[in-house]
């Protein structure tokens, strides 16, 4: 049913005062909120990301932490280059004189000989012709004398088998008797006569052994089971 326009206008004028009273009794909307108590519109699109803010100020240092465990030892590094030589140090004081050393040259002189004939003649050098050692040939078997080639201190000794007669012998140095040995023979027995001595010799000195006195004092004996020997060797050479 279609109403005439005049009727609608009159109705609105009559209703308007009543709506105003009712609306006055209701809670008024917050004027800051648009479209309050009204149906909201469609949600809008998300806005664009804002620009990054500025870096903030550095914070305060924290407390010092505890000491950590010792780490594993690393591999040995390469050897560095040799440095340049340092400056020479100050000259030291002279040292004490050293002890006198021995000569590099080894001095040798020795002999050991035995008797091959019985009852050698008295008052002449006894010729020991059985050679045990005479590498330097300082003992002369043809004369029975030892010739000093190296000056120094020598040791001489003799061990004589005594049989059938008494024995009187002496050791000579440069035509002078140095020591004497006497042994009295006992019948049906074999005895020994021996002695030794240290002598200092100069180059050219001679040393030998001989029977002294009469014929009946030369009971020096030797055979295939008994020896009478004469020996000597250098102890200390004169290094000066």
From TrEMBL:
Subcellular location: Secreted
Keywords from the UniProt entry: Collagen, Hydroxylation, Secreted, Signal
Domain C1q: 104-240
Family annotation (PROSITE patterns): C1Q (PS50871)
Segments passing through the bilayer: none
Gene3D superfamilies, A to Z: 2.60.120.40
Highest taxon above the source species: Eukaryota
InterPro entries: C1q_dom, Collagen, Collagen/C1q_domain, Tumour_necrosis_fac-like_dom
Composition bias, Basic and acidic residues: 54-70
Keyword Secreted: yes
Annotated stretches, region: Disordered: 26-100
Signal peptide: 1-24
Record GO cellular component, one term: collagen trimer
Alphabetized Pfam families for the sequence: C1q, Collagen
Name of the protein in its database record: Adiponectin
